[in-house]
Amino acid sequence: MLSNFRRPLPPLLLLLLALLVPAQRAAAQSQSYNSGASIPTYHPDWMRWVPDSTSLAALSLPGTHDTMANDTEWYVSGVERSWVLAQSVELRPQLDAGIRVLDIRARHVGDRFTMHHGAYYLRANFDDVLATAVQFLRERPSETLLMRIKQEHSEENSTRSFAATFDWYRNASAYSSFIWRQSYIPSLGEVRGKIVILDDFSNGQYGIPWSSLNLQDVWDASNPGSKWELVRNQLTASNGGAPNAMYVNFLSASSFFYYNPSDFAQSVNASTLNYLAAGNVQRTGVMMMDFPGAALIDTLVTRNSPYIPYTLPLRGGSGGAPTSSECPPGAVAVGVHGRAGQYIDRLGLVCRYVNSDGSLGSYHYASAQGGDGGSYFERTCFSGMVIVGFHGRSGAYVDGLGMHCARPATWNIGYGVDSSPWLAGGNGGASFSDLCRNGSMVTRLRLRTWSLVDQMQPLCARLQ
């Protein structure tokens, strides 16, 4: 959006902007918009539920516009930042949340690539991008990443072409085996564990030609309403278009002096989520977003398979360190174990494997996370029931907790805690009650813990 700028904004223009345009809103949150330092959803391996034979063109792929534009130099003013920054979250948390398409804008400086948004350096280099992507794919080999590469701003002190420098990166031993080298749209099975290049700099010599894709990228729309019309029209096209054609739909825009990227994102993201939730679209194609919220990512990811896990709301505070308690593949949660007093001190899942006839088999105790206070507890649902949600109380911590249990054959909700709905913990905080969608059950807990369970977020899934 700032590709026409060749230097930081002059002071007089900054003053005018400060008078006319409010700075980007701090830490605003909604289901469709997120400007916090993390995204409260978790889809690190959602592609493993998608068949190998599926074309990338057939998928609904969440992506981020100006992926690395979550930070810039310290001296850049707040007003400038509101026009430069398009994301609030670093690359790895984006990938863990489910983002699979990256928009990488590289300035060619000294025969290397630095990450830029127009004239503004984003405090990252291409090695940072590739190292993060490769580490993610090492840990999650079921996934693939699509990476649009575009030359940004002016060249400086380079002795070779932009394409030659990209080829140098591509052939580096640390990255070479992770970069797919064809120019056609592949099936997912062909590129699991790989980076697929969307080549926007050499007309397809180094990947899928960007110009061959069906694009909607009007970045200078006059207002959010007009941009939403363009997004909606492209959704209609992608939903009914040729199955082997890849559609790319940018939700991002800015209107200089009037609407910054955050203004557009808050409006267009919300309209998009509402439209998708109404069941108007099955295949969205690639959706490139600024400041995407958890529910918007969720609704894109889960379009690709009914078996992809999804998250329930976060409960608790932001303290502690991230961890998890997970049922192994083929098992579901039927109870919990841990320690509790006035709060939930430690928490883990009790799981059972599902037999081929659908009955519940042997037990598995997933590791409990947290501190050593309180007293030990262990509770399971009634025989034949599984956990389909939780209820309890939370504030800065998870104060108290109970289970929602159901029998898979009927999905009638009941409580499986010795005829009492309460599991353990105290009475502080505010009450909550969260349920998986009909037909799915809890398989994993995302947690933040230290001496207590600071935060919990269940993941729900259907069994294949």
Describe this structure in words.
It catalyses: a 1,2-diacyl-sn-glycero-3-phospho-(1D-myo-inositol) = 1D-myo-inositol 1,2-cyclic phosphate + a 1,2-diacyl-sn-glycerol. The protein has 464 residues and is of the alpha/beta class. It folds into two domains: 34-302, TIM Barrel (Alpha-Beta Barrel); 310-461, Vitelline Membrane Outer Layer Protein I, subunit A. Helix content is 20%, strand content 31%. It contains nine helices and 25 strands. It has helices at residues 11-20, 78-84, 91-97, 126-139, 162-171, 188-191, 224-240, 261-277, 294-301, and strands at residues 60-64, 101-109, 112-117, 120-125, 145-151, 195-199, 208-209, 214-216, 247-250, 285-289, 310-311, 315-316, 321-326, 331-340, 344-354, 360-365, 369-370, 375-380, 386-394, 398-406, 413-414, 424-425, 430-435, 441-449, 453-461. Strand 2 (101-109) and strand 3 form a beta hairpin. The two termini are 43 Å apart. Residues 1-7, 11-27 and 414-421 have low confidence and may be disordered.
CATH architecture of the largest domain: Alpha-Beta Barrel
Global mean pLDDT: 89
Oligomer: single chain
Structural class: alpha/beta
Low-confidence stretches: 1-7, 11-27, 414-421
- CATH superfamily of the largest domain, by name, is Phosphatidylinositol (PI) phosphodiesterase
- The level of helicity is 10-25%
The main sheet comes to: 10 strands, mixed
Q: How many structurally independent domains? A: 2
Q: Total number of β-strand segments?
A: 25
How many angstroms separate the termini? 43 Å
Rg (CA only) = 24 Å
